[in-house]
# Entry
Amino acid sequence: MMTNQNVVTHEVINTLIAMAASISNSTVLPSATVPESMAVLGGFWGLPHNKNLVKRLEGAKVSAWIDSMRASSPTRAKSESQEKRSWILYHPSALNTFEQIVYSAKGKQIVVFLDYDGTLSPIVADPNKAFMTRKMRATLKGIARHFPTAIVTGRCRDKVYNFVKLAELYYAGSHGMDITGPTKSPKQGNNNNKAVLFQPASQFLPMIDEVYKILLEKTKTVPGAKVENNKFCLSVHFRCVDEKSWAALAEKVRLVLIEYPQLRLTQGRKVLEIRPTIKWDKGKALEFLLESLGYENSNDVFPIYIGDDRTDEDAFRVTNAATPSLLVLRSRGQGIGILVSRVAKETDASYSLQDPSEVEQFLRRLVEWKRSSTVTPASV
Ligand SMILES: O=P(O)(O)OC[C@H]1O[C@H](O[C@H]2O[C@H](CO)[C@@H](O)[C@H](O)[C@H]2O)[C@H](O)[C@@H](O)[C@@H]1O
# Structure
């Protein structure tokens, strides 16, 4: 006999899939995908929904998003914990291991990839005021003089350009869905770089704009909530929202997204990010840029990727989905990922730095190392 407990509806399965995806890789799968293997669980699609169970699962999904946002922005109290002390053994400071890093890069072309928020600029309450220091800009200028350098960010490309203001860099905005090359040579000469422009999600622009307007409207009653239009993706900010209202805000976002199965959601530092379901992320952007620079299948390149957020894991992590010959960082076995964090976090990065000021120190040492290693005997 069928009881309420064993009634598993299509909707419940979809919610379960979305929850599992949200927990494992922050991905909301298209609602149409119900694995056949799960049908055997019940084999009774179309029977009345168990509304309480559905509600509980939907609530669990919202809680999973919130837990994930919390995990991305843990409190400082944990920074000196035992956990951090053992974590650092596996993710040593890139400053303390600098010599080892540059030794591995010997004879190879270093290419530098940098996330923006939390990596080049400190995290602040107002996303429009996430300025980087002059010192950081000067160091970045030096870096770009010696190595191809790209900013890879969830931000809108124009907005991040206005913060960084360096025309000699590559920019990959909207989580890598909006890529351009330098418009100026780092050495002030002619710009011989081939023009690079890649926008794999252009067809989603009208939908993103539509969802932006809906979210603005739906979230306006939640004090502190902000919705940011990052061109090919959106961010819903929780940082200035009372934690008691986080679940309600996340629920509003969930309800809007039900109507847009072509969009998916990821969690960052007190932010929910909404973007197209295309197979494109910061890792793919890194591969694309290496390829544009002529380093496809090359052993002579040493990419260094520095980032602080969950979305940077796509670049740290092994990926061989689209281009099996190109693997990201660890799997290339020749580059490194550096996580910027004061606390222990699960990561595929090999090294760590504590904050943007340590990132600046690391980059400055890289410039000094390059300068000293290219000094010719005649110029000494
Ligand atoms: O890939 P990123 O460059 O790290 O972009 C991720 C998000 O960064 C920004 O939000 C974060 O920084 C804000 C300013 O410090 C902070 O207020 C917010 O809480 C952080 O999540 C940016 O505003 C978002 O649009 C990006 O998605």
User: Anything to note?
Assistant: The domain at 80-200+279-375 is CATH 3.40.50.1000 (Rossmann fold). The chain is about 40% helix and 15% strand.
